[in-house]
Amino acid sequence: MNRNKSAPGFQKRPQHEISISRSDHRWNLFFGVQLVASSENVIALSEGGYPARYYFPRTDVNFKYLKSNQNRTYCPFKGTARYWDIIVEDESLSDAVWAYDDPFMECIDIKEHLSFFIEKEPLKIASI
Predict the structure, then answer these.
(1) SS3 state at 122
(2) Which burial class, exposed, middle or buried, applies to 75 when counting CB atoms under 10 A from its CB (0-12, 13-18, 19+)?
(3) Radius of gyration of the chain (CA)
């Protein structure tokens, strides 16, 4: 388990930057027209030159549209991510959602949160 362990990525590259901040307004995540997640407690994670990622608390995600799959990826800065597909009626999107169940301590704030691959159609995110 990674709990209370430093990320090996930061040990090798201490100059690598990840910033984590809480949003000050509500975010909605849609799959087409279907609302899949809505929260006033979204965490924005910015890393290097990558687009910001928005992490929704698990309690604010409608899991009836998610199906867990076997895919896993490893990030030396955050830990191991697991993935879900989104399925709404007859439309689906593979590997569209991920979470770090046991992130390294530098990213512990994203524990119990899920992020969405918002560049994939038909996902849309909006702040209100």
Answers:
(1) coil
(2) middle
(3) 15
CA distance 85 to 117: 11
- Assigned token pair, 37: 């997640």
**Tens digit of each residue's pLDDT (9 = 90 or more) over 10-44:** 999 999 999 999 998 999 999 999 999 999 999 99
Instruction: Determine if the peptide bond prior to 51 is cis (ω within 30°).
Output: no
**In the block, which residue shows the tokens 């895919």?**
71
pLDDT of residue 4: 63
| CA-based nearest residue to 109, from 56, 60, 39 | 56
pLDDT digits (tens, 9 = 90+) for 45-87: 999 888 899 999 999 999 999 999 999 999 999 999 999 999 9
What are 58-67's contacts with CB under 8 Å, separation 24+? 58/99, 58/112, 58/113, 58/114, 61/36, 61/37, 61/97, 61/114, 62/35, 62/36, 62/37, 65/31, 65/34, 65/36, 66/36, 66/97
